[in-house]
Design a protein that fits this description.
about 45% helix; five-stranded antiparallel β-sheet; globular; three-stranded antiparallel β-sheet; single chain; alpha+beta; about 10% strand; about 550 residues
């Protein structure tokens, strides 16, 4: 198969080499450019052209071998998408399926501006979709269940309320969503939104649908993975559950963003270089542990524990599901050691709040006698807190008077504070301000902005989230059609409103207020079907789009 299709592999590789990396700016017809300055309609027609390639693909044997090695997915590559990198007898089958889909997509003459790595991302996610269904892993089920609980239907955008949509079979609507997701996440999510109804999404999905339908009855189960997942849920061990969460966030091709692991490694190295409490390996481990429970994960933009809870619930482990649903997290902070008990230690933060942390969460043999405090992350699972990842030890009181300390966890008290500000303002959660002085006045804090502050803006939207604290948007107040907003301008709103959604910084409860009260009535995206249709896509799915773009490409 690979020998016969070497021509198409070469074409696809050469095109990918010519494409720009995700960090570079480029435009692709068929997407809305944020803040909407370009409105080019839908993606141009894709062609299936077997004979009329005009690409020059001549290269040396060594170059061809190297590029094919990069293009081709091996069974080892596929095993790396499993929890713990687990190898299965089915790995070779699914690696070949990825290659088959990639080769099939090479017959489509995608525009040269298609996002870098798009074909492989689509192939990997669609093969993961098939593996998930035939093996009963439950990841896709968890996404659909969470979406149905919140929005009353199985998927965003597409009609799934018909007799041909089957939860345990291949569905064209599922594939359309996966292709749309790959388009968004292989580019720059904060500056692009592709239409889920573009002709490109339709053509690619139909091509892959035929391949997966033919493979559905033949595909072997990844039984080692499914058995492992069930054992983890049955035991309910915190660290094994965290490993599953890490898998979803960083390696599972249905939930994770492309390049997540690379972003984690870079962030860990950066942490180590800027902080003498961590070496490089500890820094990477620390970041991985925190990202495992990241609050904005996957296509629902929720904590990874929510996906795990639905997976566990589907297998009958309701008690574990309840614990996962109620996970709480302190991302990173410094704590003073207050008390050492037989099974737990008591830590307190700079504000005096106490955390009873189980000794099980520390390395076996850890001595607490001379420890005065830790810099670490904490997760509440069940009735106790667990030290999450690496913990840097203080041998002196971190809060001593001769060593003034400011909490690393800037949002540790933000919920209580922002809720008090909202209560002081009659329960109002969204404010429109001309300058930082007005922002400071609403918050009841002194404004310390210097006159030459280079981050000042023409206007601000202040958002007080009940669950996430304070958030601030700059230069976007013109988009909000609100009786309390003096800045609204319809002409600007038509261009920039999509940017409010794609910004990724609007908290979940504030997004609900915006959608429910229709505060962004001019938000629309480019659509081949016309402006009215493009507007309906956004208006009918606004809250979900907020969810989706709350999870941004980790490298942006």
């Amino acid at each position: 198969c690979l020998m016969i299709n070497t021509h198409y592999i070469c074409i696809s590789i050469k095109r990918n080499m010519k494409r720009k990396n995700p960090s570079e700016n480029f435009s692709l017809p068929g997407m809305s450019i944020i803040p909407g300055k370009e409105n080019t309609g839908n993606m141009p027609p894709l062609t299936c052209s077997h004979d009329n390639y005009d690409d020059d693909y001549d290269m040396s044997d060594d170059e061809l071998r190297m590029l094919i090695d990069e293009f081709i997915t091996t069974k080892e590559d596929w095993a790396a998408t499993h929890p713990e990198g687990m190898k299965c007898r089915s790995d070779e089958y699914f690696a070949n399926l990825v290659n088959m889909i990639s080769i099939a997509m090479a017959t489509l003459k995608l525009p040269s501006s298609t996002p870098h790595g798009f074909e492989k991302e689509v192939a990997m996610s669609c093969a993961a979709y098939l593996e998930d269904l035939v093996s009963g892993l439950g990841v896709w089920h968890s996404f659909r269940t969470l979406h149905r609980k919140k929005y009353g239907k199985w998927l965003p955008f597409y009609d799934t309320e018909h007799e041909d949509y089957l939860l345990d079979d291949i569905n064209i609507e599922d594939l359309k969503f996966l292709v749309w997701q790959a388009f968004c996440r292989c580019g720059q999510p904060e500056s692009m939104i592709y239409s889920p109804y573009s002709q490109g999404v339709e053509i690619i999905s139909n091509l892959i649908f035929d391949i997966l339908i033919d493979s559905f009855e033949k595909a072997p189960e990844a039984s080692r993975v499914s058995d492992y997942i069930r054992r983890v849920f049955k035991k309910g061990n915190y660290f094994e559950l965290r490993n599953l969460a890490e898998w979803l966030v960083m390696r599972n091709k249905l939930i994770s963003c492309p390049n997540m692991m690379r972003a984690v490694i870079n962030e860990g190295k950066s942490l180590a270089s800027s902080h003498d409490l961590f070496d490089e390996s500890m820094g990477v481990y620390f970041v991985r542990s925190i990202r495992a429970w990241a609050p904005n994960t996957g296509p629902m933009g929720c904590r990874s524990s929510k996906y795990l809870a639905e997976m566990s619930r589907a297998q009958g482990f309701e008690n574990i599901s309840t614990l996962l649903d109620n996970i709480q997290m302190v991302n990173v902070d410094v704590f003073r050691m207050k008390e050492v008990k037989q099974k737990d230690i008591v830590l307190e933060d700079v504000s005096g709040d106490e955390y009873v942390v189980t000794k099980e969460s520390f390395k076996t043999g850890t001595r607490f006698k001379d420890t005065k405090g830790y810099m670490t992350s904490l997760v509440k699972y069940g009735d106790r807190w667990w030290q999450n990842g690496a913990a840097s030890v203080f041998t002196e009181d971190p809060f001593s008077k001769d060593k003034p300390f400011t909490s690393y966890n800037q949002n540790s008290k933000s919920k209580e504070w922002t809720n008090s500000v909202a209560e002081r303002n009659g329960g109002k959660r969204i404010f429109y301000c001309k300058n930082k002085e007005e922002v400071a006045a609403i918050l009841g804090v002194p404004d310390k902005t210097k006159p030459n502050d280079n981050v000042s803006a023409d206007n601000y939207v202040l958002m007080l989230s009940e669950c996430e604290g304070m958030a601030l948007l700059q230069n976007l107040a013109e988009c909000f059609k609100d009786k309390d907003n003096p800045f609204y301008k319809k002409r600007i709103a038509k261009e920039d409103s999509l940017g409010v959604i794609a910004d990724g910084n609007v908290p979940e409860d504030i997004a609900h207020i915006i959608a429910e009260n229709k505060l962004l009535p001019d938000a629309e995206m480019s659509a081949q079907q016309g402006k009215r249709f493009g507007k309906a896509i956004v208006q009918d799915n606004m809250e979900y789009l907020f969810d989706f773009f709350r999870t941004q490409n980790p490298e942006v």
